[in-house]
Amino acid sequence: MADRTMALIGGSSFDSGWLPGMAEIPGSRRTPYGEASSPVWEGILHGRRVLFLLRHGEGHRYPPHAVPSPANLWALREAGADEVVAVATVGGISPRLGPGAIVIPDDLVDCTRGRASTIYTGPETGVRHIDFTRPFDEGVRARLGAAAGRAGIPVESSGVYWCTEGPRLETAAEVRAIRALGGDMVGMTACPEAAVARELGLPYALVSLSVNWAAGIAESASGIDFALVAGGMEEKNRSVRALLDAFVAGGC
Ligand code: HPA
What we know:
This protein is α/β, with parallel strands linked by helices and 252 residues long. The protein contains six helices and twelve strands.
């Protein structure tokens, strides 16, 4: 089987310079669901075709609740994506997911509201209820874990991703409630992205980088300075990039 085209959705920690020599696919932002948040770029890495899209757009213009996930996933599929790996920052709740931890979640809880969340908007699209028992693709997750092993990058290979609406961060009481209900990390961006990918038949998995302890987990007088923590992770970002590189090198 020929290698499949891997699409990467880059989050806050990525820019379009991920892969030198990537070329923008003309017209790739336009979809039946409106404009994608960025063009799709394409390139070759380890002999494999890869696609790239910036979730928050160039210049980080789309806050999490305004990310056009149906358009983004549609644009990637139109460009020929066979599978999607998404990168997203999170706040750690579980003791094993402190700042700097890289985790490949195995489940999620969607607490977003009012986002463009489906390609089945009806009535003209018809009605379809996708199976979402396991929201992340187990095959892609396993290959990400294997790639991390080959590259010598420590990762946590499971955890429940709890998606909040944002853009504000959570209260301490919200994080206590999330922890009591089984959440291991909290983020704002994997939903509805993961569900739309499933609707479009695209195997999808997430690589999360913990950039802070979630609110109230490690008490600090000044609270969470998100800009500060997200910006102070260059070394860990390099590890995430090395993991993706090893993933692509590993083929399908
Ligand atoms: N909460 C929600 N989303 C996040 C956080 C957080 O603490 N850190 C990074 N993304």
